[in-house]
Amino acid sequence: MSAELGCNKPDPRMYHHASTALGLMPTQRLFIDDDPDLVQAARDLGYVGRALVRDSPLPDVPPVPSITTLTELLELF
Fold it and tell me: Which of 25, 31, 33, 36 is the most exposed place for a label (fewest CB within 10 A)?
């Protein structure tokens, strides 16, 4: 998709394109990535976001909500 849009995350166009394609508001979307900076970029745009951290704990700054396994997502619903 980045080749079509001519940009990469964290460019807001990436996030907006996905929301528009699905017909959802950002608050209705859950963005998961192993890069906390990309998760924070999505959260800055109104998305619900979680960083998937399997190996080492996240640094305290910036505070990004995280999960260690995908099964933890079930608690959000």
Answer: 25
